[in-house]
Specification:
Number of strands: 14
Strand content: 5-15%
CATH architecture of the largest domain: 3-Layer(aba) Sandwich
CATH topology of the largest domain: Rossmann fold
Helix content: 40-55%
Bound molecules: adenosine-5'-diphosphate, magnesium ion
CATH class of the largest domain: Alpha Beta
Number of domains: 2
Distance between the termini: 84 Å
Strand order of the largest sheet: 3-4-2-5-6-1-7
Largest sheet: 7 strands, parallel
Number of helices: 17
Amino acid sequence: MKFEEYRIAEGIKTSISKLGFKKPTDIQFKAIPPILKGEDVLAIAQTGTGKTAAFVIPIIHILHERKISGRPDGVKCLVMAPTHELALQIDSVFKTLGKHTRITSFCIHGGVDQEPQIKKLNEGVDVLIATPGRMFDLVSQGALNLKRVEILVLDEADHMLDLGFIKDINDLMRHLPKKRQTLFFSATINEKIKNLAYSLVTNAIRIQISPKDPVAKNIEHAVAYVEMDDKRFFLEYLIKDHPDKKILVFVRTKVRAERVRSALERVDIESDTIHSDKLQAEREKTMQSFRKGELKILIATDVSARGIDIPDVEYVVNYDLPDTSEQYVHRVGRTGRANQKGQAVSFCSTEEKELLAEIENNLGKEIQRIVISKNDYENTISFTKDTSHDWKKLMKEAEEQEKKHKRKNKNSRR
Ligand code: ADP
Ligand code: MG
């Protein structure tokens, strides 16, 4: 079925075709009709499968049909997302798809002056997007009235729980009308998500797409055993082996992010980092240039990169293994968006092997191994341009000389 055949406002179809979307993705195909009917939906699908448009399209249609004129009368739809970046991204999808409709959307920022935001809210906004924490702040200050909300969306519900938003979500519920449509989107499902979902909705239709393998089929992902101290050389090699590719590198901490960046700098590779120590404006600027492809290598921590959709990331590198299989799925899901091909590789050190086993156990399958011969491993290390690394070469030379020396001695003793 094509989008043209859907019974949705023409203005939305125009925007969909401008985006170049022809057919709905699986999750869109399954979720759009029940949402249009006003049903509650709990949708579980891998990252990169088009969940955003799966709720944005029907929501714009519903609100557009109901909205009699341009007259503002309060927020009709509330979208909660785990991070500010994700909220902004959802807002931009609402704006793009709603361009030829009467629907307006707005994303609440953290860390900026509240007054203009409150003013904007009072002018009338149909769809409001923010993190649960930020929304709760505004509600408790009396700056945000949720009495007219008809549709509630929780995007990346799994991550909102991970980030400890459960209390904010529950507190917010008390301010929302009981009679409403609730939509849940998540890449993973577990008891906690189910409990939250069923505590907020009455008869959710559950839609689940390929639950068996949470990593999308179009993503090739593998793991290579690389020792902690050698990881930077392997990253350098990989980057140089894939010139002009957009590569997203995940590290465990912000300190490590900066270290990797300076290690790359030493070998003349330009990269940038995003993590929570950076100012919002800085993070946005970096994201923007990575989106546009001006920046090729982005080093990120999990929290800062959660849920972000960046077109054409060809390679994801797990420089450090993530702590959980959910994080693993999310990280590798940053590549291979919407049926494009993607590649991901994880560097696993001896210390991380246990973690790897746990991740694989939870994924329910083994991750492919990249077998690196001793020779290749050593070549990769000596491939580096890093001059501070010369001592390794010197050591090697010394070793060889010693060997020769020993041989000589042996022979002379004969
Ligand atoms: P998810 O939330 O499931 O991780 P997103 O909603 O961020 O995924 O979508 C991933 C990518 O797929 C985006 O770049 C989006 O523009 C693209 N996309 C979504 N729907 C379609 C479609 N029907 N056809 C082609 N591309 C699509
Ligand atoms: Mg999403």
